[in-house]
From TrEMBL:
Belongs to the AB hydrolase superfamily. Lipase family. Residues 1-22 form the signal peptide. Residues 35-100 form the Partial AB-hydrolase lipase domain. The keyword Zinc does not apply. It comes from the Eukaryota. Keywords: Hydrolase, Lipid degradation, Lipid metabolism, Signal. Pfam families: Abhydro_lipase. It comes from Chilo suppressalis. The lineage of its organism: Eukaryota, Metazoa, Ecdysozoa, Arthropoda, Hexapoda. This is Lipase.
Length: 403
């Protein structure tokens, strides 16, 4: 019974984002690192390392050109090109933006459109480490998305600017990648001067609809405290455990018997039409770890209906993040069937941004069943969202970027 409960908890908590970095249709490549997946699809790739102010090492992955770009452009390092930084969600990685391949994944589509694409990673996943702490040290996991905004995102933005020589870049965030943006701007508003605009995919700022789940797990069951006491430093499982879960529960190819997707869709919204059955065991097996404080911080926001700092803990005082510190144009994109970051929360965020004059646009995906995870791995995400999104990004860049 305990194992079943923990499995359900894992699925529900990890539903904030896609949790994989495997190649979209090749199970034999599910263990390949992101740079290998990029080169396998015919794109140039670079690895860059950045160190945050508090000592975390982050590996960034760069796609400086598209597949059809002249090699001389690649050789120049992409200098002078339009640059975008893409930041993933909870328990995800840079692989979120390459998993569905060249026809669907936003990073490839942007690269082919002439953009210099930088894929960020946030502390805790496989592409991060610390200069002094190991992953077996509890201090390594002592962070939430507050630190992502305070340290990780600024360090990555500065790295892109330094390498490219540009004065500004465009930021694209998915799920917790959007939370990271807003927490960064609240703490370091000077970064408005380093960004052209912000594109938010399924922004995770107001998640009131998760209040019941958060209250049950964090207050009624107090499950995270129990797991900490049993020595679990973070949300994460050994690879053999993940493989067992994937092979035992996630191999069915129909809605009636696919336990994994039934549980997940109960949280993020059902969309079997856009689900690739080959993906289910792969993204479960490729889960990235997350700190308990990340989950607790989201829980605090859900239970209080306030986009608040961690302050003095889960049950501590509320200190709202300063959304009015955002001074650059913001575009919000949401799924009509997203139960995690649902429309009401997006509209609330849009109203606050509109009051300060920074809301550029807000748009829901035309597919009526489009859910939270579809932004990353819907079968037709290229057609439904990403290809039209390139035109929107062009508009933002052309309208707001002044050297």
């Amino acid at each position: 019974m305990c194992g079943v409960v923990l499995f359900k908890v894992f699925i529900m908590l990890s539903a904030f984002t896609l949790i994989t970095e495997a190649q979209y249709s090749r199970k034999d490549n599910m263990d390949a690192p992101v740079p290998k997946l990029i080169t396998a699809n015919g794109y140039p790739v670079e690895k860059h390392r950045v160190t945050t102010e508090d000592g975390y090492h982050i590996q960034m992955h760069r796609i400086p050109a598209g597949r059809r770009t002249a090699r001389r452009t690649v050789g120049s390092g992409g200098k002078g090109k339009r640059a975008v930084l893409m930041v993933h969600g909870l328990v995800g990685s840079s692989g979120d933006f390459v998993i569905m391949g060249p026809k669907n994944s936003l990073s490839y589509i942007l690269a082919d459109a002439g953009y210099d694409v930088w894929l960020g990673n946030l502390r805790g996943n496989i592409y991060t480490s610390h200069q002094n702490l190991t992953r077996n040290d509890p201090a390594f996991w002592d962070y939430s998305f507050h630190e992502h905004g305070k340290y990780d995102a600024p360090a990555m933005i500065d790295k892109v600017l330094k390498v490219t020589g540009l004065s500004k870049i465009l930021y694209i965030g998915y799920s917790m990648g959007t939370t990271t943006f807003f927490t960064m701007m609240s703490q370091k508003p000077e970064y408005n001067d380093k960004l052209i605009a912000f594109v938010a995919l399924a922004p995770a700022v107001y998640v009131d609809n998760m209040k019941e789940i958060a209250t049950f797990f964090l207050k009624s069951m107090d499950i995270i405290t129990t797991l900490r006491q049993r020595g679990m430093l973070a949300l994460g499982f050994k690879q053999d455990v993940m493989d067992f879960v994937a092979e035992s529960f996630c191999t069915a190819r129909n809605p009636e018997s696919d336990v994994c997707m039934r549980i997940m869709y109960s949280i993020v919204g059902e969309d079997y039409e856009q689900h690739d059955w080959d993906m289910t065991p792969i993204f479960i097996a490729r889960a990235q770890p997350a700190s308990w404080k990340q989950l607790e911080h989201f829980g605090k926001i859900a239970m209080t209906s306030v986009f608040t700092e961690w302050a003095d803990g889960l049950w501590g005082a509320l200190k709202p993040y300063r959304l009015d510190n955002v001074k650059i144009p913001v575009s919000l994109f949401y799924g009509l069937n997203d139960r995690l970051t649902e429309k009401s929360g997006i509209l609330r965020l849009a109203a606050e941004l509109n009051e300060t004059g920074v809301l550029h646009s807000i748009k829901g995906c035309n597919w009526p069943k489009f859910n939270h995870l579809d932004f990353v791995f819907a079968k037709n995400v290229g057609k439904l969202v990403n290809r039209p999104l390139v035109g929107h990004i062009d508009e933002l860049h052309n309208k707001y970027y002044v050297q």
